[in-house]
Amino acid sequence: MANPATLEPRAQEILDRERKAYEEANPKSREAYQHSTRVLPGGVTRQLCYFPPFPCYADFGEGCWFVDIDGNRRLDLFNNATSLILGHRPQAVMKAVREQLARGTAFQTNTGLETRLAEMLVERVPSVEQVRFTNSGSEGTLMAIRAARAFTGRPKIAKMEGGYHGSHDVVEVSVRPPLDAAGPAEAPTPVAESAGIPPETMAGVVLLPYNNLPAARAILDREASRVAALIVEPILGSVGFIPAEREFLAGLRAEAARHGIVFILDEVQSFRLSRGGAQALFGIRPDMTAFGKIIGGGFPVGAFGGRREIMALFDASTGRARIPHAGTFNGNPITMAAGIATLEQLTESAIGGLNATGDRVRERMRALGAKYGAPMQITGIGSMFKIHFSASPVRDYRSGQRASSLIHEALFLFGLNRGLFLSSTGRCCLSTAMGDTEVEKYLAAVEEFLSVLAR
Description:
Layout: H1 4-25, H2 27-36, E1 58-62, E2 65-68, E3 73-76, H3 79-82, H4 91-101, H5 113-124, E4 130-134, H6 137-152, E5 156-160, H7 199-202, E6 205-208, H8 213-223, E7 227-232, E8 235-236, E9 242-243, H9 246-259, E10 262-266, H10 278-282, E11 288-292, E12 302-306, H11 308-311, H12 333-345, H13 348-372, E13 377-381, E14 384-388, H14 397-401, H15 405-416, E15 420-421, E16 427-429, H16 436-453
Parallel strand pairs: 3-15, 5-6, 5-7, 7-10, 10-11
Antiparallel strand pairs: 1-2, 2-3, 4-12, 8-9, 11-12, 13-14, 14-16
Helix pairs in contact: 1-15, 4-12, 5-12, 8-9, 13-16
């Protein structure tokens, strides 16, 4: 197996060529981007939308494809950051949305749709007894953490190094910290992910290493008396779909129970992995769960739920709630209708088929890596996966950071010029709209890239 560093000069050649080809093939997107920079900082209003030299601009989507304004048809392998599990404009969702549009887009009262979607989540996820809706996964984790603090009377939270839980201050800590500032692997140092996060917020975060239970346990033993919530993704999403080891998750769950800490499972991305989410696959019962992405059927959504005694903090029916929870578009009827239609399509059979396809893709990519002697680690679970160009196993944030980002970038533009759209960092997820033909198209492009890289 080759060392990634020895392949980087060749990857740079590929990147330079593919960047030039992309610029020549997408003049309308380039013009649209240049226009956007006049009114949007960096030309975008969402960080994930940007990639150099400029992002492509979507025109319309259909199934597992979208067409950009330059007329390029692209196989969508990221599906709006995992949220479009049925693909673009699925018939059942479009029908539900049209019917609700005819009734109205928003009301200052209930419609019953929020009750139905909540019932579906409660039925699928035994740990969730009651639910509240928000407009993003970020809001969902924010409110779950606030509930944990109110319930325990403690001020701090514990999170994983490399864990992403949204854009509010307390979780914007050590999502992608520079390794030279991150401290020891067994006792990572909290690093602010963004300017504008005050020192007192940083002081309220206890940082744990992912997939290292002995080290996490030792840190919790020291800090637990002031920790309200332990929040974790069962699949470390933003740094490459790195699954937690079951023993690690089970151990964290046990430590949280032992110390009286509210255990929050962030299922914003991982809920797609089974009818009952990742917690059903791992056999873990959290105190609280955060949701998002697929439960909105392609519309803005988030949710949090869990034990009835914790969720009672939001109950205003007998007077002022201990935690007031407002939001003009919480439980918006368009989103609720789309979410209901989506979950109705996500049967055990449908999800099982997606996961089986994901297993085949990972197996095939490992075989391609062996065929071309490429330093590739394939992470993921179910319908989510990523190639890491590394000679060493990837099981946490730090091992993922040792992979070659240059080779990733070259593969991204190589695929883009051949009709593939994945995240610029290489993350991929499947939709039910994809079939064997589309899977083979992706794998053929990966093989072509590896063959060019190996020359």
